[in-house]
Design brief:
elongated, Arc Repressor Mutant, subunit A, 15 strands, D-Maltodextrin-Binding Protein, domain 2, 25% strand, alpha+beta, 5-stranded mixed beta sheet, 3-stranded antiparallel beta sheet
Length: 301
């Protein structure tokens, strides 16, 4: 390996906090990783990593070297783009994790405009309705909706969305329109399931939050199936209004109990902690902020 390759390997070890995981990602054996990192430390005359029974951590010298290395590797990428293609715009591949429905409706349709601005960037999507490990899956940025439970991520709020209770006019004509959250006990619900458990519905009533456990004929772990279930008249569902934006405009679905709607939920772009964000990722996230600002279902509140 040349020096740049060893520096990339060092960054991979830090990002994964594991020699074995870094080796697996890079397609080499663990002893090779250990040998190159040891040689790097010997050449620098400084210990970069602490190895303990709890794992790996950076020394003070390691932190400084890591930050400088990430910055340098990004600059090298940009220099190669300028020399090889005669331009200074960001280039390279971005791996983006997102949910299927949100990507299909609000990110993929915007990419032609993004590629007009940045023709030398390619976007590779990793589609999942469940949160994945960004480092192990080599994700540069993930789009996450709702409150973040992982405080180690570097997050930027790029939008927000309404949570709404929705149904078709046909269902409400058949079953009646609930007047309060308590009335939902008499209704059929299309329920979203996460980790095998039904996600409770939340409503704002005066200055308190009211929780309802939905019960109905269908439970699903896929947001698009919730959408189809509602449109098929199977029952009510609480979910993001953006998932039904076209149907809300056309009247194919209507809001129910809007006076009890909870606060808007945040939309974040998140990256692994400790990683300096590359210019290609920065321009992509900036682009999403501008695109979401033009949509009333997604703009920052």
């Amino acid at each position: 390996m040349d020096r740049l390759d060893v520096m990339r390997l060092f960054v991979r070890v830090v990002d994964t906090a594991s020699f074995s995981k870094a080796a697996k990602i890079e397609g080499v054996v663990q002893p090779t990783v250990s040998k190159h990192i040891a040689a790097l430390e010997a050449r620098l005359g400084a210990q970069l990593l602490r190895r303990t029974s709890r794992g790996l951590s950076l020394t003070e010298a390691g932190e400084a070297f890591y930050e400088a290395t990430v910055r340098l590797l990004d600059e090298v990428e940009q220099i190669e783009a300028r020399v090889g293609r005669g331009q200074s715009a960001p280039s390279g591949r971005i791996r983006v994790a997102m949910s299927a429905g949100f990507g299909r409706m609000y990110i993929l349709p915007k990419l032609p405009q993004f590629f007009e601005e940045y023709p030398d960037i390619t976007v590779e999507t990793d589609i999942s309705d469940h949160y994945i490990n960004l480092i192990e899956n080599r994700i540069d940025v993930a789009i996450r909706i709702g409150s973040l439970s992982d405080s180690s991520l570097v997050a930027r709020k790029i939008g927000s969305g309404e949570t709404a209770l929705l149904a078709t006019p046909g269902y409400l004509e058949r079953k009646g329109t609930p007047a309060t959250p308590a009335d939902l006990a008499d209704h059929e619900c299309v329920t979203f399931v996460s980790g095998g458990a039904a996600r409770p519905w939340q409503f704002r009533e005066a200055d308190r939050t009211v929780t309802v456990d939905p019960v109905g004929p269908i439970r699903t772990s896929d947001a698009e199936h919730v959408r189809v279930g509602v449109l098929s008249g199977l029952g009510l569902a609480q979910g993001p209004a953006w998932l039904f934006s076209e149907e809300l405009e056309s009247g194919a679905v209507v809001r129910v109990l809007p006076e009890y709607a909870p606060d808007r939920h945040p939309i974040y772009a998140v990256s692994p902690s400790g990683r300096l964000q590359s210019s290609k990722v920065r321009v992509f996230v900036d682009f999403l902020v501008r695109a979401f600002a033009q949509n009333r279902h997604l703009r920052l509140s």
